[in-house]
Amino acid sequence: MHKLTAGTFFNGKLRIKQDPAGYRFSIDAVLLAFHTKPRSDERVLDLGTGCGIIPLILAYRHPDITAFGVEIQEELARMATSNVNANKLQDQITVLCRDMRELKPDLIGGPVDLVVCNPPYHPPSSGRLNPDPQRAIARHELKVNLNDVLQTAKRMLRTAGRFVTIYTAERIAELFIQMRSHGIEPKFMRTIHAQLAAEAKLILVAGTKGAQPGTRVDPPLIIYDSSGAYSQEVKGMFMP
C-alpha cells in the first residue's frame, strides 16, 4: 500500500487518512451521509465502507448511534479501522473485513435499523475499468452488484428498517424494481444535478422494509452554483 495522505473534515473535527493512489471517497459519500437520518440509539450498517467515511460522519453527528462498516478489501478495511481509532470512535464504530454476501445479523449482534450503501454504479462491461483495483471495485460491479446489496440489506434490516443509497440516475428503474423485489419499498427520492440546468446524473433513494407504496420526491439537489463553487446547501453538508 502507498503512503497514506491525511485530511480533515468538519473544520478539523474528523481526521481521515486515504491512499492517494487507491480509492478515495467522493462527494457522493458526503451527500449520502447527509441524507442518512439515524434516530437516537439506532444501529446503522454501511455496506462497502471504504475508508470508513460514512460511519465516521454519522457517528460524529449522532453520538448515540452504533455503526458497523463492512469492507471486502483488506487494505481498505485496515484503513477504516485506523481512521475509527484515530478519531476515538471505536466505542461507536466496528469495521468488519468480509464479503457482504456472507454477512448475517448474528455477526453484529442482531438486525439493524438502517442500512446505507454507496454501491458500484456500473456493470463490469460498462466503460473503461480503472487500472487501480480499489477504484475499479468501487466503481464497477466486480465484487458485488445491486442485487447483492439489496439481498444483504433485506437480510440485515429489521422489519420497518430503512435503506438509503446514492446511485446513478440512468439505472433508476432497475434500482426501484430491485428494491421492491427484495421487499424494500421506495419511500423517498431526490435527483442530484451538477448545476441548475444540468440533467440529473445521480439520485438519492431511501426505502423501508415491508412498507406500503408511496414515494416522496424532494426538490432537486444542486451541487455547484453559477460560479462553480459548491451551492449553499452542499457547503452546509461539510459543516459539523
- The rough form would be described as globular
Rounded to the nearest angstrom, the radius of gyration is 17 Å
* β-sheet strand percentage: 25-35%
CATH homologous superfamily (4th level) name = Vaccinia Virus protein VP39
Q: How many strand segments?
A: 11
What share of residues is helical?
Answer: 25-40%
Task: Please describe the biggest sheet, giving its number of strands, its sense, and whether it closes into a barrel.
Answer: 9 strands, mixed
Report on the architecture of this protein.
The chain is an alpha/beta fold. It has a single domain (5-237), classed as 3-Layer(aba) Sandwich (Rossmann fold). The chain has 7 helices and 11 strands. Strands 3, 4, 5, 6, 7, 8, 9, 10 and 11 form a 9-stranded mixed beta sheet that branches. The chain has a two-stranded antiparallel sheet with strand order 1-2. β1 and β2 (14-18) form a beta hairpin. The chain is globular and about 40 Å long. Residues 129-138 have low confidence and may be disordered.
